[in-house]
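Dear colleague,

As promised, here are the two records you asked about, laid out in our usual form so they can be pasted straight into your sheet.

NAME FIELD: protein one
SEQUENCE, THEN STRUCTURE:
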Amino acid sequence: MTQAPTPTADTVRRLVLSLLKEGAGAAGPEVRPVTGTGGHAIWWVGTRHVLRLAPDREAAAQQRRELRLRDLVRPHVPVAVPVSVAHGEWAPGLTYTLDIKVPGGSAAEHDVSAVGEADLAGLLTGLREVPVRQAEALGVPRLSPRSLEALRRAAGRAAGRLAAADEFDAGLLRQLTGPAAVQLAAQPGTAVLVHHGLTGDHLVVSADGRVRGVLGWADAVVGDPAEDIAGLALAVGSPAAVRAATLAGYGARPCLRGLWLARCDSVVRLAERLAGRGDDPPALLRTHLRHAWEAILLERVTELREDATDDAL
């Protein structure tokens, strides 16, 4: 198998000069790698653009699909979806896209305001409105819902390890009983387009707390909408995530399911990292744990009824 080339600053500079011939000057704009992205696959280009380079052929296939998916999603959501001003191949079989930078910071830099929660609600609403058949025609895969019972058991084992390290109160997981996990199973016929990566880095938030854009569409799937509620719980906190999902029209069941997906995931991932597995910084995973377990008025899962309405929140 041929070793994929490693992009260097010179590689990026030559590519950028060929793409931004007008107004770039003889030396072209400054290029520098985006830190914390796991390699030199994403580069800042001046102050207005971001260059993303696919490091292998699988990533290249994802990037081609992502470009088409962003065009499909854009009319349905009230927040910015990145726009590509140029795309092609930077090496044989390896793609690139030069995107206009969406102005703002990350959810780690700025808290999401009440109006920002309405922006998130519009995002969840828009994703539900994207025609599933059109998304699948672009190659977006369909992903089966996860078993909350299996995740509950894994989280129980992980919670014991975190408790021994004085990182977590394992008794909190007793709130999610076996019957409740079964009751919160995903319902048939509820699959929608799911971003599946609503991390703090992928939410562009302005200083006033508005959510201005959403990045990182490469991992989108057709599947369980509770996964995006869970992602928001980790990124911006459980109360904000549930309020946004409620504004988007989701009832108690998907909100509770998303909440418990986030809670179990946060426990499992931190335990794995402390055991030396995974790449996410422990500080980030501790923030996710704190966000997921923020107190909200959705704890009585054993009393959830089939006819639960928004009043149950």
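NAME FIELD: protein two
SEQUENCE, THEN STRUCTURE:
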Amino acid sequence: MRLSRRHPLLVPALLCALAVLAARPTDAAEKKAPADGGTDAGISAQVARLYEDAAVATQQYEAGRLEAEAQRAKAQRLEALLDRERRDISVLHEDLGRIARAQYRNGGDLPLTAQIILADSPDQLMRGQQVFSQTNLAVNNAIEKSRRAEAKLSADEAQAATAWQSLEKRSVELAGLKTGIEQKLEEARQQLQGQADASVAAGACRGAVRLDQPAVQVTSPWVTPVETYELSAGFGSGGSRWANRHTGQDFAVPIGTPVRSVGAGRVVTVSCGGAFGIEIVIEHADGYYTQYAHLAAVTVDQGDQVAAGQWIGQSGTTGNSTGPHLHFEVRVTPELGSGVDPVPWLAARGVPLG
């Protein structure tokens, strides 16, 4: 790193905002594991803690980024000051050279005895001595000013170097924080998905894990099923993965992403197995049903009442899935085959999908 020159701040893109959630699926019609879950509950709790850590890390990361930006601005101001000081010292050196040359031309280099001998009159001698004294004073002042400027330049260069070093250290710390959380979270996600796949293969869903989650903070009666997402396969699209047309809207999200109930309602189905893997179906007061499929875990049981925005599980890639995503459906009945396009359905309820 060149400490006395500007360089771009190496701050990685911000982490995605994450929150506390983990779950274990259940099926009222199938065999259930004990509610406490033993080791299975342990990994769910670990995922929950890592999501909480990631949320805190995101706040720290953003604060650190702002701090680093301020530090970079300070370092850049110091660099501008150093450039100005270097120019001033260069001017001082030029002035000093001019004064020295003028002194030489005016006989300032002659000893006092030679000046007395060569002087034509006392007046000429006095004038010569006055010029000599003034020249010496100017030289001494210029030398002292130059020394002070060079000392200040040296101190400011050290301050600028410290500023850049502090900036670089903070950038490295932020990158390490991000990498550490991401690695741990990815390992936990894979373990959670492995448990989900095992339960689907065995046809024995686990009971829901009741973990603390943040209070629901929504002001609208309807919300998106996940907070941050990219839309992938849409309603009615074709593909080799489906026997007919696609019956819902897919949201591309990482394994373990908190899945929310889009509105208030009652859980009518929590099951694992089949093309949808681990899935939840919720009945809403207006007579519609919503489905959340390919999950890795759930936090609700059949019969539970849920609120809009309440976390009901975590996304995954169970069942007939080519990668991590949430398959979301809106139906007229609880069963497959009665689906309507979720995009205009949500839009009509004040939830446009971007």
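A couple of things worth noting about protein two: The first helix runs from residue 39 to 105. The radius of gyration is 37 Å.

Best,
R.
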